[in-house]
Design goal:
Helix content is 21%, strand content 32%. The chain is an alpha+beta fold. It has a single domain, classed as 60s Ribosomal Protein L30, Chain: A (2-Layer Sandwich). A 5-stranded mixed sheet has the order 1-3-8-9-10, with no helix packed on it. It has a 5-stranded mixed sheet with strand order 2-5-4-6-7. A hairpin with a 4-residue loop joins strand 4 and strand 5.
Length: 168
């Protein structure tokens, strides 16, 4: 299996069954995993900030950096590869407050609120989430199976999206 790494302020979408998408260091950032089991299309987005109005110049150069520019582009890439909105399995992780005593900006919380607003406005339901707290996370999505795993700092990798995690 080949690994494709999704960096901070990056996204990858694929339908190559022998590919695994991996993103590291999800702290206050948000990782969004989408998967269409019929089309075999999956992707990971790792965005850093909630709103592109914070830095419009940077948003033009790096649209994956922001929720409001990155999320719509991410879903559009999946649709171009054959994914359909009604079949997408959507799982998110991240939004932590890592620097408890000094994070007065609450970027993790703002990132989650921005994502939820965009999903609500777009009619995108969440299947599962692993958000908040103070843990840094790693996400891995296997395109061939749709299996998504999360690993928090100091813990074993576990599958995310099992019947225990489903929220709808």
């Amino acid at each position: 299996m080949k690994n494709l790494f999704v960096g901070v302020s990056d996204a990858k979408v694929s339908r190559e069954a022998d590919t695994s998408l991996v993103t590291y260091a999800l702290a206050s950032c948000i990782g969004i995993s989408i998967y269409d089991p019929v089309a075999g299309v999956g992707g990971l987005l790792h965005y850093l900030l909630p709103d592109s109005r914070l830095d419009p110049v940077k948003a033009k150069e790096h649209p994956w950096m922001f929720a409001d520019t990155g999320i719509p582009m991410f879903f559009q890439q999946a649709y171009r590869l054959g994914a359909e909105k009604s079949r997408l399995r959507v799982i998110v992780a991240g939004g932590a407050q890592v620097l408890q005593s000094t994070d007065s900006l609450e970027i993790g919380k703002k990132n989650l609120l921005a994502m939820r607003r965009i999903f609500r406005q777009s009619g995108v339901p969440l299947d599962a989430e692993d958000v908040g707290g103070s843990d840094i996370r790693t996400l891995r999505l296997e395109i061939g199976t749709g299996r998504l795993t999360v690993r928090k700092t100091g813990t074993e990798e576990r599958e995310l999206g099992s019947h225990l995690d489903v929220i709808r």
